[in-house]
Amino acid sequence: MDGITYGRTLLLCTLLLWVFQVVSSGNVNVVVKPKVEVLKEENASLPCTVTPLTTGTIVEWYIDLGTRTRIAFCQGKEKKVDPGTPLTDRIKIGEDFTLTISSVKPSDELNFTCQVTDPAGSPDGTTSLKVFSAPEHPKLTTSQAITAGIPSSSEVGTCETKNGFPLPRIVWFRDAKPLPEVKDKQEKTYMVAKQVKETSGLITVTSSLYMQPMKEDKDSEFYCTVEYSMPGNKIETMDSNRIKINLNYPSDKIYFSLFNTSQPVKEGDTVTMKCETDGNPQPPFEFTKNGEEAQGKDGLLILKSVKRSDAAQYKCTALDFEIDFTLEKTIALTVDYIDPVKVTPAVSKVVMLGDKAAWQCRIKASRNHTVQWKKGSEVLSQNGTLSIQNVSYQNAGEYVCVGAVPSVPGLMSQASVNLTVKGKPVIDPPAPVKVGKEGDKVTLMCVAYGVPTPNFTWQPSGGEQSITVKGNKWVSTLTLKTTADMINGGVTCEVENEHGKDITVFPLSLEQVIKPDDEKGSQKDEAKRTTGYEDNRANFFFLLDW
């Protein structure tokens, strides 16, 4: 046998011995597995092969409970399970002497020995049964508040994982870095572990972490990991929830600022000032306004619908009576404002047609501001003065003076006045009206301006009449049948009030309608004219040739 063949044979024999244990006594061999791994509640099969077999061979299975206890045996065709053992109701022995255990429990983790009794020898082989059960997800709970900087260690939290087998291991982490496992309580950081064997045989493990935390640990994140064994030499892990220490530590700095408040602040806003420190828990706070006490609560000073008189120096003072210190911070609150718009004269005006009207607008504000006179969306002036020369009826209506502070969104004020224009009526020029034929109905609208209310007179009269108001315009509507006189002379609308009158004529005309026959006749006449021209042209050239 060469070296390579010998090496391969030796390796194969080594692997077989690792998987199966071969025991010989005389001429009898017993082959068993050294180890069988199974999950809790599953079935386990423990093989036992005996060679050679004779009529008198007896095969027995034993467990070690401190004393060697038989649980099953096979002699010839007789196979029996021994009564009164922890496995009596859950085992059976097969034709090939394999021992099967159903619904495996942690308590079944024992050494099982297959014993052979034969005239040719009495060998035995032992199988170690290993049972596994994954624990429940670990839970991490925090303790009560801890004070930073004290010379003794305090409990940070407790990690618990239930119902594992074999014994799980708990590892602590701070900011994703594992903490060394320390059991010495003289150290600043150490762990206290405890394990409880449940009635099921499973194991519950708890571990409490003790530390002497400093202020820097306030943002540290802690968690634990449970490590547990599974078949095939696998080590698996599960992480717990994350926690932060409920840490008490003194304040070194104070912060005082406007909180959830639009900037800049204007009259009518709600202002919230928030005071806090870098300590935990927050100390009591006192507030003052220009040295006078101001009412705040839980570090908040709230001013509703502020006025310009609320502009002041506000101070927050943090008090800690245990270590006798104070921290202070101030805010200079500015409140922007704009006064109500003042219009001179402050009343609406009634002006005669053709006269003039003027108003002056003034405002006062905390910052640079703008002043605009507007009618609707149209800006008429940006210097505070509104002047209208030669007033017309179109100038009548509402005028608004708007004052605003552009640098403070939403800070504005406004006032309005009305201009009423009086005078004789003025009629809008009418548009020509077309009618199909004499006797058709036609509707005419006479639109006029005038204050006071004008009277309308139509010539010819009759028909259906109505008067409506559209803004500062009066509209008289007339519907009547057309006559030859109306088509020749039009219809007259006269409007009059106490200041005078205005008259206009609505011209009427018939629509020109071309009948189909007339259109064809026109085409024929045109063709004749064209043909005659061609004939004359031909005669003219004939005379020239002649």
Keywords:
546 residues, mainly beta, Immunoglobulin-like, 6 domains, eight-stranded mixed sheet, 10% helix, disordered C terminus
SSE diagram, text form:
Blueprint: H1 3-19, E1 21-25, E2 28-32, E3 35-39, E4 44-46, E5 48-51, E6 58-64, E7 68-75, E8 78-81, E9 91-93, E10 99-101, E11 111-117, E12 124-132, E13 139-142, E14 146-147, E15 154-164, E16 169-174, E17 177-178, E18 190-197, E19 203-211, E20 222-230, E21 234-239, E22 247-248, E23 254-258, E24 271-277, E25 285-289, E26 292-294, E27 300-303, E28 312-320, E29 325-333, E30 342-344, E31 349-352, E32 357-362, E33 370-375, E34 378-381, E35 385-388, E36 397-404, E37 412-427, E38 433-435, E39 441-451, E40 455-459, E41 464-470, E42 473-481, H2 484-489, E43 491-497, E44 500-506, E45 508-510, H3 516-545
Parallel strand pairs: 3-12, 14-22, 31-37, 38-45
Antiparallel strand pairs: 1-2, 2-5, 4-10, 6-7, 6-11, 7-8, 9-10, 11-12, 13-15, 15-19, 16-17, 16-20, 18-19, 20-21, 23-24, 24-27, 25-26, 25-28, 28-29, 30-32, 32-35, 33-34, 33-36, 36-37, 37-39, 39-42, 40-43, 41-42, 43-44
